[in-house]
Amino acid sequence: MNVVIRKNGNCERVFIPKEVLQRLGLKNGDALEIREVNGNIELVPERADLAEQLRAVRLGMQKYRAPLRELAK
What we know:
By secondary structure, the chain is an alpha+beta fold. The protein has one domain: Pemi-like Protein 1, Chain: D (Ribbon). The chain is 42% helix and 27% strand.
């Protein structure tokens, strides 16, 4: 299956056919990680557990900003 890179404003886009998304269980709004492997491009669904962990870390860093700054001195 071939797709074409198309210009859209300041970005370039690749459209993934609906049947491919359905086969892979992906939907609009899902996050993908892009990897370059041996000169090839891989799109990998973002692991929800990692994304959830990163959100928790960000919340903790915001909540404890002052104590973390003191510890960093």
